[in-house]
Specification:
mainly beta, 4-stranded antiparallel beta sheet, 32 strands, elongated, disordered N terminus, disordered C terminus
Amino acid sequence: MTEPEVNITELEVNVTEPEVNITEPEVNVTEPEVNITEPAVNVTVSGDSITVPDENITVPENLSIPEIISPVIETNGTISVINEETNTTTNLSVGPDTGGVAVSPDGTKAYVTNLNNNTVSVINTVNNSVEATINVGDYPAGIAFAGTNAYVTNANSNTVTVINTINNNVIGTINVGEHPSGIAVAGTNAYVVNINSNTVTVINTINNNVIGTINVGKNPAGIAVAGTNAYVTNANSNTVTVINTINNNVIGTINVGEYPTGIAVAGTKAFVCNANSNSVTVINTINNNIIGTINVGEYPASIAVIGNEAHVTNLNSNTITVINTINNNVIATTPARSLPVPTGHCVCAIPVPKPPCPTCPCPTCPEVPKCPTANFSSKPIYAVKFTDMSKGATKWYWTFGDGTNSSERNPLHVYARPGSYRVNLTVSNENCTDFKSSIVNVCPQVSKANNTQVPPGDSAPIY
């Protein structure tokens, strides 16, 4: 892995030599050597691709190619292009809810996934204009380059769209796992993280065939490549799975912070965002040991490396934490103008829930199991069961002396308070009607007629 700070500005002098330092993490192109065989076209060809002019753009030798920087990528349908040499910014309108960004190996184009209109915008980085819009799958999220092809994960379609970046035609659609998101390229293979399948799909970028499926942790979120290893964050396992990309075997599992999501590599270090721990775990990719933990903002979800700096997006505090990747120190915290979205091969469709509210309860707070608390209250119920003892009746009508009535034969009536109540019963059949009235004493009063109580729940016969 080339040290990320090397030749970050050399694009302006070597722009026509794509083989020079293409693996720089700030442009997020992994193993893009130009000796990769052109992928075969024996895959399913989409009929609705958008063709743009085929003429090649000639880049002047001394032109400074601007870098696309993560702290200013936003989800409001715009993307900002920063020229680091002149420190000038150009804002471009793309699709709604910007997802991932990847820069072509020659640095002349940037491809932006637009989450909510199912397209990819192609930006000409020479003149900072949107030169094409390409229809892809449902909810395009991650994007990465392999040779002259761009691979786009479609989270809701469970597919990967293959774009020929020479003419911006869609040349294939590949079925992968459930809810694909992050994607990274190692050599001639593309590794796709499937969030809901707990797997990584391996695609051979020479023929665009799926050559393997690797089981990882629960809800894998992000992926990054360091040397011959791929590192996968497992959000609900609080681990990172290490895959040997030569034989596609899992060679290790590393415990990190709570709910790891975004991940990026700088030199021999991997930086893992722990969203619920408000921290970044630093892994030595030589021996896969944890060498540090860095406190950042609230709910760090994603990360991108630019030169010697790692930029962490803190969703809940709406800030960017800048980390010096050489000494692992925080060197700046800057406000984000909108919900920040990072660039990188694990772009933004990571399965992060909404940041927690400052105080609970609220709709976005997780349900926490609670222990029971013992308590009770009591209130006397003045219930009287009335038993009909009439003869020959077929209909009954009771008035209970408290403004209520019933047409049941043997009603159970609940009084609001104790006292003496005049209860009337009217009975009838097809021939005539009869009437009976009596005082019912509801405890604690005592009946004067027979010196007995009628406690709640006892019958009060009517004769």
